[in-house]
């Protein structure tokens, strides 16, 4: 005759074993799920970085051409104004281009006469001799605006400036 207590304890032992295996499988499943989630998160971050880089690569020639067009329009405005001609229409085109560049994440920057010359943000196009030591290595005049990336702060094209250089008068 089979003892009912031994049947019950055997059944409980088997049930405990099955529950233990189920618990192990559940823990293993949880580990795999956590690993998959971390892989998904990493791939998402990488995808975002790649998309950002692709956007920059695609926009690169457009931004370069817009900067060049802005310069041409600005030069034409400066050429017309001293002759008494109205460069308002051309100035509005240059302003429109600056807005387009702004939407592409490119900011226009300039300098004022007397500002200190900043290597990297300014590119000297000519030297203007002066006899005032306090004006040495300062901006005399801005020839063309500079452009920089808003997101990274990288200067895409330095402002083109004329720079004062102190030259003492010879006796």
Could you explain how this protein is built, in words?
The chain has 171 residues and is an alpha+beta fold. Among the domains are: 57-104; 111-171, Roll (Nucleotide Exchange Factor Grpe, Chain A, domain 2). Helices cover 54% and strands 20% of the residues. The strands form 2 sheets. The chain has a 3-stranded antiparallel β-sheet with strand order 1-4-5. Strands 2-6-3 form a 3-stranded mixed β-sheet. Strand 4 (146-149) and strand 5 (155-157) form a beta hairpin. Helix 1 (4-80) packs antiparallel against helix 2. The radius of gyration is 35 Å and the shape is elongated. 14% of the residues are buried. The model has no long low-confidence stretch (mean pLDDT 87).
Features:
single chain, 171 residues, alpha+beta, three-stranded antiparallel β-sheet, three-stranded mixed β-sheet, 2 helices, 54% helix, elongated
Fraction in beta strands:
15-25%
Rg calc: 35 Å
CATH topology of the domain at 111-171: Nucleotide Exchange Factor Grpe, Chain A, domain 2
Strand line-up across the major sheet: 1-4-5
Report the principal-axis shape: elongated
Please sum up the structure shown:
The chain is an alpha+beta fold.
Topology of this structure?
Elements: H1 4-80, H2 88-103, E1 106-109, E2 122-130, E3 139-144, E4 146-149, E5 155-157, E6 159-166
Parallel strand pairs: 2-6
Antiparallel strand pairs: 1-4, 3-6, 4-5
